[in-house]
Amino acid sequence: MVTCNKLKKKRITLQRRFLASLGKLTSAEEDFFCQHTFMISLSLQSTWINAINLSKMAAETAYISGAEQASVTIRTNIQLAQSQVEEARKLSADADKKLAETKVEEIQRMAEYTAFLGDSEEHEVHEAYLRED
Q1: Which of 41, 77, 82, 104 has the fewest CB atoms within 10 Å, counting from its CB?
Q2: Between vectors from CA 76 to CA 72 and to CA 80, what angle results, nearest 5°?
């Protein structure tokens, strides 16, 4: 559980840094942020899946040994862990979607800025042309 909390905090911190740095990053730096965020997500999912598998083995062992109440408790914990894995996957997908949307917005802003610069240059050329007459 401690590992998962650390990974969640790490991912949130990384995403905040990325959002604060938008427009200032090179494409290589953006790719690094995306890759690092993805790796944290995989690590988080892996941790939960390992916890689920260990819980399943413990439940089976408890059931075989006749400890039915322990088995029931462990199975309940497995269901909880599985729901948390699903939630982590959804959060990861949402974060990836927001990251993609942010990239699209940044590309649109850059395109608008480039178009604005292009319009400014056209006016300057046009005015210079008129002055020569």
Answers
A1: 104
A2: 165
Give the up-direction half-sphere exposure of residue 12: CA atoms within 13 A in the CB hemisphere: 8
| Separation CA 34–CA 120 (nearest Å) | 35
Q: Calculate what percentage of the chain has a pLDDT beyond 90.
A: 0
In terms of residues, how long is the chain? 133
Cα 53 to chain centroid distance, Å, stands at 25
The residue range of the domain holding 26 is 2-98
How many domains is the chain partitioned into structurally?
1
Residues 3-62: tens digit of each pLDDT:
767 877 887 887 778 777 777 878 788 888 878 888 888 888 888 888 888 888 887 887
Other Cβ atoms less than 10 A from the Cβ of 103: the count is 15
User: 109, 102, 88: which is closest to 34 by C-alpha?
Assistant: 102
Residue 26 counted as domain residue: yes
Q: For 34-50, b where at least 16 C-beta lie within 10 A, e where not — what string? A: beebeebbebbbebbee
With respect to residue 43, please indicate whether it lies within any of the assigned structural domains. yes
